[in-house]
Amino acid sequence: MSNMADVRSEPIDVLRAKDGVIIDVRSSSEYARGHWPGAVNLPLFSDQERADVGTTYKKCGRRDAIHLGLSLTGQKLTTLADQLEALRNQGPPRIYCWRGGMRSASMAWLADLLDLNPSLLSGGYKSYRHWVREQFSKAWPLRLMGGRTGTGKTDLLLGLRGRGVAVVDLEGLANHRGSSFGGLGLPPQPTTEHYENLLAEELDHWRLNGAEAIWLEAESIQVGCCRIPAELFHQMQQAPVLEIQRGPRERVKQLVGVYGQQGQQALADATARISRRLGPQRTAQALKAIAEEDWTTACEAMLDYYDRCYDRELKLSPERTFLDISGLDADQAAERMLELNLA
Q1: Which of 28, 172, 190, 287 has the lowest CB atom count within 10 Å?
Q2: How far is CA 136 from CA 89, 151, 300, 316, in A?
Q3: Contact, 113 vs 86, CB < 8 A?
């Protein structure tokens, strides 16, 4: 008969080097706040059950909490076993809970009983979060892509990534384009905690691939509701910047292409959120244009404000070079950068 002691408990670096499905056995709300990217959530307890076990532990002690946990888990063993069986072809499971305690050990016991050869993450998700924070204190060979609103920075970065250049898409990971309008038409944002997890995984991916430079978009520390870790943001502020440039007509066309399909109400609400900074004249001009579905005029009304914000932030960059990509689409601009040995 298998027992919990048979299952290996291994540190994060050892477990990261292994293949196999990652299983997070915490409750759904814990998982939603942040998890090891790619992990499958097979919660041992629901949120309410977890709260009940915790309350029992505080009021009645460990033994009563264990008995309650066993009674709750016993009803689910068949379902949990079926869920584990469904993942069999994804390799030996790597299992974690919050601190590497009873929840993950219980699931690992069941996985071992099914001959799935599981491993446990020593210290649980808490140790994973420690690994994440460590990544941001490392020195990274960062390069920044700058440029005024509408120059197509994200498209160019994605074009470079498609050609094998190391790129971390700060906005893509955040599901936000970084302005008052940035969340329109995009999925909900992750929590800042999970955003950090995603960033750490991307950086580590490029480290393992031996990247000599890692490109990011020049951003404020806040990308919507997601916050770039302070240690990484400090390195970004010291990194050299390549500022791409386009003529105003191309920039407006780019913005119309991105935001023109987002709907009048959503655009009007986003404009209202920055009305104090736009000023009454520009706000009125933009809202009138939105009401008339005159997307070009609406974008033009806001360009000056965003240009001034961008110029103020980029003044602090220690090293800036410039590349005019007027008339080029993202793929052509990426090829130009590679031809000029800029990436």
Answers
A1: 28
A2: 34, 29, 38, 21
A3: no
Active site residues: 97
E strand map for the chain: 8-10, 22-24, 40-41, 94-96, 119-121, 142-146, 214-217, 222-223, 226-227, 241-245, 320-324
- Count Cβ atoms below 10 Å from residue 85 Cβ, excluding itself: 12
Q: What secondary structure does DSSP assign to 108-157, as a single string?
A: HHHHHHTT---EEETTHHHHHHHHHHHHHHS---EEEEE--TTS-HHHHH
Rounded CA separation 197/35 (Å): 7
- Read off the amino acid at residue 337: M
In what order do the strands lie in the sheet containing 8-10?
8-10, 119-121, 94-96, 22-24, 40-41
Tens-place pLDDT, residues 219-256: 999 999 999 999 999 999 999 999 999 999 999 999 88
**Distance in angstroms (rounded) separating the CA atoms of residues 176 and 186:** 7
Q: What is the pLDDT of residues 316-326, one digit of tens each?
A: 666 789 999 99
